[in-house]
Amino acid sequence: AATHRYTFNVQMTKVTRLCKTKSIPTVNGQFPGPKLVVREGDRLIVKVHNHINYNVSFHWHGIRQVQKGWADGPSYITQCPIQGGQSYTYDFTVTGQRGTLWWHAHFSWLRVHLYGPLVILPKRGEGYPFPRPYKELPPIMFGEWWTSDTEAVISQALQTGGGPNVSNAYTFNGLPGPTYNCSLKDTYKLKVEPGRTYMLRLINSALNDELFFGITNHSLTVVEADANYVKPFTVKTLVISPGQTMNVLLNTAPNPVSSAYTMAIAPYTNTQGTFDNTTAAAVLEYAPSTTTNNLPLPSLPRYNDTGAVTNFSRNFRSLASPQYPARVPQAVDRHVLFTVGLGTDPCPSNQTCQGPNGTKFAASINNNSFFRPSTALLEAHYARRYAGVLLANFPTTPPHPFNYTGTPPNNTFVMHGTRVVPLKFNASVELVLQGTSIQGAESHPLHLHGYNFFVVGQGFGNFDPVNDPAKYNLVDPVERNTISVPTAGWVALRFFADNPGVWLMHCHFDVHLSWGLSMAWLVNDGPLPNQKMLPPPSDLPKC
Ligand code: C2O
């Protein structure tokens, strides 16, 4: 196994999009940030120097960080943020994972600009469990762009208690492309040859939007999700939530009739408020072509087509082969039911709030809106000093009755606190996430740090603890780190709590994360030396 060393200099860089220039934080002046490529089993040492006047920390989204929570990165959870002028080295080994993941900043909404791909190739000589693609294409990261100053966007959202101003564009690797004014020259192009099979790695790094993706006249065969192989399936359009990654095989046309085709992304949302309903395009180029602005767009589902999303998500099955078995917990030690959704807080008397009926939006899990601590939870746990930092009484069943089939939910009441759920080492956990959004509101892409989970079931309406478990897939359910709780529905997940530490779980819509749709699991050490957290690195930042 190899060791890869990278230096991340976080600095301000001027970037122009849509005819407006602004200064954004970047890694080494690059936007999107550098692509990291390793093989399974390799070690990564990333030295971060923060040269900006703002806190930062980095998360390696989907890396399990076994025994090494110190390298996970969410600010105030596994570390204090790296302050301006300070440095921190993330040092970790990629074990038992291969595929596409990504890295992003994990302080406030800084990930809007600070993100990049993390490609994990199979071990040398191991190959893929499908015919070897002709070539790997550069990864594509979908994103969002605001022309206004991003700090202003964040404070607008957080201070008014309403939703954020919608973004001005979606982007392919930071480029909005030909569907927006003043953006034709900022079009992402992917060069291909006819009659070949390519590997394409897709990452949704958008802040607040699930996206449809398709390519005119081409199909896509999904082979991997969140760095786990799946049984291949072929679609025209795929759906990808913020945080999720997907590898697809793209067969190019043997005799293309056009020298170029359009790739497009557009949002999936059921939200009734305002959202960015634009479509961004990029170009799949068979031969250099000058006319990229009038190519037909692929037909994507309508923005609120929940049926298309459901059909798409039903395709996912773990490969579950002898070489890549699906270790699905068959028995359950710990049943947990979480409601996830939006609620409201009263508006402080010295403010005007833009949430429903003049309130402030709050978001919660089991009615607990996560309150950001002032020190890192993992340090408190390691030192067994919980007082004044966290409470180990996060409710594992909904404290208020809910029933939203037909009527709006009555559990939008919100309490605030830094609460965690303690778990015994290696407990087998079943977690049901019940969306309580009023019919027609959004789904929530929930991301679990430090783990993958198996998605054993999903459905609409209220989860039925008697009849729904009988329909679970305990044979080859998909294994992921991020799953969307369907609009007006639920998902059931299972995992073994075999990684000690403090692990954040949250909605990967940054606006919901800021509103408190987040919690942490506190997984205790196991008895053996390789089941215990390792001590913190000496340069761990101080709060
Ligand atoms: Cu991709 Cu906690 O984040």
Automatic annotation (TrEMBL):
Keywords: Apoplast, Copper, Lignin degradation, Metal-binding, Oxidoreductase, Repeat, Secreted, Signal. InterPro entries: Cu-oxidase-like_N (IPR011707), Cu-oxidase_2nd (IPR001117), Cu-oxidase_C (IPR011706), Cu-oxidase_fam (IPR045087), Cu_oxidase_CS (IPR033138), Cu_oxidase_Cu_BS (IPR002355), Cupredoxin (IPR008972), CuRO_1_LCC (IPR034288). One of its GO terms (cellular component) is apoplast. PROSITE patterns: MULTICOPPER_OXIDASE1, MULTICOPPER_OXIDASE2. The keyword Disulfide bond does not apply. Lignin degradation and detoxification of lignin-derived products. This is Laccase. GO terms for molecular function: copper ion binding; hydroquinone:oxygen oxidoreductase activity.
